[in-house]
């Protein structure tokens, strides 16, 4: 073990317990590190941005905060991954979690298995929201202005022979769906695949959970979507917490 690294980490941990900072002598005393050594390590940590010295006390610096933020993000990703894996195992289909963030469709996480693989993203999900259930469900939750803005940037285009053909027809379909209704899409994005997406209320953010199944097993889709909708109630806190990923 490298002793200097261990001592530096102990100093960082001690500094993190003091929201208003602590002087070198106090940090040395709390960690049991000799004061001259503590001064040397604190200067190094400050130089590297892990600590910041203000009015004679040491507080966490930007580098340490980035580490903390990264760890929190990984924790949130782990939570959403576990939640999707639970749904996948219960339903027996690939499960997708997506949000509409800053004008873009973002697939946050997917959980599948070799026996039940997810749909291959052969055409950019962001640009083809009119064709897949995830995009249709997210766009159905937006107001008219936001929908039009999205279509101005990503006009409707024919993806398969089952896809909607133009913006006007697509907007009429969204109006008919309603903002918080499940969406079913049959081979509009990928031939041989049918999908369903369930809208999620998560503050001001449009979100969705979706599933897919081979077209030959289409009779499984609606019962599975109903079961997914029941599961959402138990997972909503985790999903809403993960919106900030």
From TrEMBL:
Keywords linked to the UniProt accession: DNA-binding, Transcription, Transcription regulation
InterPro entries in the cross-refs: GAF-like_dom_sf, HTH_MetabolicPath_Reg, Tscrpt_reg_IclR_C, Tscrpt_reg_IclR_N, WH-like_DNA-bd_sf, WH_DNA-bd_sf
Name of protein: Helix-turn-helix domain-containing protein
HTH iclR-type domain residues: 2-62
One Pfam assignment: HTH_IclR
Keyword Transferase listed: no
PANTHER family, per the entry: HELIX-TURN-HELIX TRANSCRIPTIONAL REGULATOR, ICLR FAMILY (PTHR30136), HTH-TYPE TRANSCRIPTIONAL REPRESSOR ALLR (PTHR30136:SF24)
SMART domains: HTH_ICLR
Residue intervals of the IclR-ED domain: 63-245
């Amino acid at each position: 073990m490298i002793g200097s690294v261990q001592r530096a980490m102990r100093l960082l941990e001690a500094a993190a317990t003091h929201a208003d900072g602590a002087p070198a002598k106090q940090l040395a005393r709390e960690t049991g590190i000799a004061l001259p050594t503590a001064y040397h390590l604190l200067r190094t940590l400050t130089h590297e941005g892990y600590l910041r010295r203000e009015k004679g006390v040491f507080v966490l610096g930007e580098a340490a905060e980035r580490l903390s933020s990264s760890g929190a993000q990984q924790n949130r990703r782990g939570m959403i991954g576990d939640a999707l894996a639970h749904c996948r195992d219960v339903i027996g289909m690939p499960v997708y979690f997506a949000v509409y963030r800053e004008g873009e469709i973002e697939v946050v996480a997917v959980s599948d298995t070799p026996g039940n693989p997810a749909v291959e993203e052969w055409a950019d999900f962001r640009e083809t929201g009119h064709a897949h259930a995830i995009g249709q469900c997210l766009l159905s939750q937006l107001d008219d202005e936001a929908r039009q803005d999205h279509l101005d940037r990503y006009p409707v285009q024919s993806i398969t022979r089952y896809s909607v053909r133009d913006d006007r027809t697509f907007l009429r379909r969204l109006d008919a769906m309603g903002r918080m209704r499940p969406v079913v899409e049959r081979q509009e994005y990928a031939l041989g695949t049918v999908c369903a997406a369930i809208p999620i209320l998560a503050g001001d953010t449009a979100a969705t959970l979706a599933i897919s199944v081979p077209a030959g097993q289409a009779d499984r889709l609606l019962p599975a979507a109903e079961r997914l909708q029941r599961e959402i109630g138990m997972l909503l806190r985790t999903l809403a917490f993960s919106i900030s990923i």
